[in-house]
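Hi R.,

As promised on Friday, here is the backbone we talked about, encoded as structure tokens. Could you run it through your design pipeline when you get a chance and send me back a sequence?
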């Protein structure tokens, strides 16, 4: 036996004896195959896999049902929030059942001034002329809590989108609200609608204010801006806006205070969203951002020339270059010559 083999034998014997001098029993190492899952062809493995898939399907269905219920129910109802009694809401939808369901939930939240606009090609009466809207005012019955009966104004409009919003806002002037929420029936109960109403009610009542959706479109690289994002951003910049934003009145929900509603000719200008936004900004109004997720539904296409006409008709001298950071605050606010360094 060589010296190397004798040394290895002594090390092996020492590893088999513990500190107390007693021999230590060494367990056989398990092979990696014993830790693996049963073969896919075994009956037991197939039954377990099928049970897991069935449980996942049941869990996914339950989550989807809870998500649908959360969309239909007001998210703020469980947090003690109530609809401001001095505010009104304009709800638009092509489906009568969606309008009624949303109106019922709004009344439960405390809304007492409602304008329901059923819009779309099948909403106008057959004998009504094109562009006409049928107005029917009614007071709904008080609910079980003994609250004051809600005032409802029902409209039928043959067109959707901005034309329906303008008709609803014009009708809401009869209710004399301090603030107005304009929303689709499916999105009126979302948290963004509540935050928009609260924002315009906190603003100074003598100054026009509109709470608009801010989806962060201007935070992307300029090469990824959509054409409407670029046009709305230019409209803000050309009328003196210092914030890089593309908020607009081209999508719902949005909220207006009483001064903004009067500034927009009792809501008539809402039929032309670029002109309405230009009139609001040129009249000393403020656009209040409310963070929302980017919409997957494309807004109505608007001709680029409409933005130029909106700036021209706003009645304020536009700024024809983007503000750079080398100019001072007075020049950036429009007190200096447009596009020139002082």
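Update: got your reply. Pasting your designed sequence below so it's all in one thread:
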């Amino acid at each position: 036996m060589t010296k190397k083999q004798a040394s290895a034998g002594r090390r092996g014997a020492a590893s088999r004896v513990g500190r107390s001098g007693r021999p230590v029993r060494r367990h056989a190492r398990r092979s990696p195959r014993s830790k693996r899952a049963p073969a896919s062809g075994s009956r037991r493995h197939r039954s377990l896999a099928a049970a897991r898939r069935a449980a996942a399907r049941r869990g996914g269905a339950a989550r989807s049902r809870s998500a649908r219920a959360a969309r239909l129910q007001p998210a703020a109802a469980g947090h003690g929030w109530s609809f401001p009694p001095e505010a009104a809401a304009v709800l638009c939808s092509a489906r009568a059942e969606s309008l009624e369901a949303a109106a019922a939930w709004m009344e439960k939240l405390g809304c007492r001034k409602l304008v329901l606009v059923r819009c779309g090609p099948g909403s106008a009466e057959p004998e009504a002329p094109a562009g006409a809207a049928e107005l029917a005012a009614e007071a709904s019955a008080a609910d079980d809590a003994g609250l004051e009966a809600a005032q409802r104004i029902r409209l039928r409009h043959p067109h959707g989108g901005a034309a329906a919003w303008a008709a609803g806002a014009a009708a809401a002037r009869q209710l004399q609200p301090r603030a107005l929420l304009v929303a689709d029936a499916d999105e009126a109960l979302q948290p963004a609608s509540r935050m928009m109403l609260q924002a315009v009610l906190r603003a100074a009542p003598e100054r026009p204010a509109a709470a608009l959706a801010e989806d962060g479109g201007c935070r992307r690289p300029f090469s990824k801006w959509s054409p409407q994002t670029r046009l709305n951003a230019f409209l803000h910049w050309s009328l003196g806006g210092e914030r890089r934003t593309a908020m607009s009145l081209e999508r719902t929900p949005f909220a207006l205070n009483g001064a903004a509603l009067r500034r927009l000719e009792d809501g008539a200008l809402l039929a032309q969203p670029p002109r309405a936004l230009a009139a609001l900004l040129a009249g000393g109004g403020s656009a209040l951002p409310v963070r929302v997720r980017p919409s997957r539904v494309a807004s109505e296409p608007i001709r680029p020339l409409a933005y130029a006409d909106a700036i021209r008709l706003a009645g304020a001298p536009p700024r024809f270059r983007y503000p750079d950071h080398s100019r001072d605050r007075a020049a950036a606010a429009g007190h200096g010559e447009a596009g020139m360094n002082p």
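One thing I noticed while checking it: The chain is about 35% helix and 15% strand.

Thanks again,
M.
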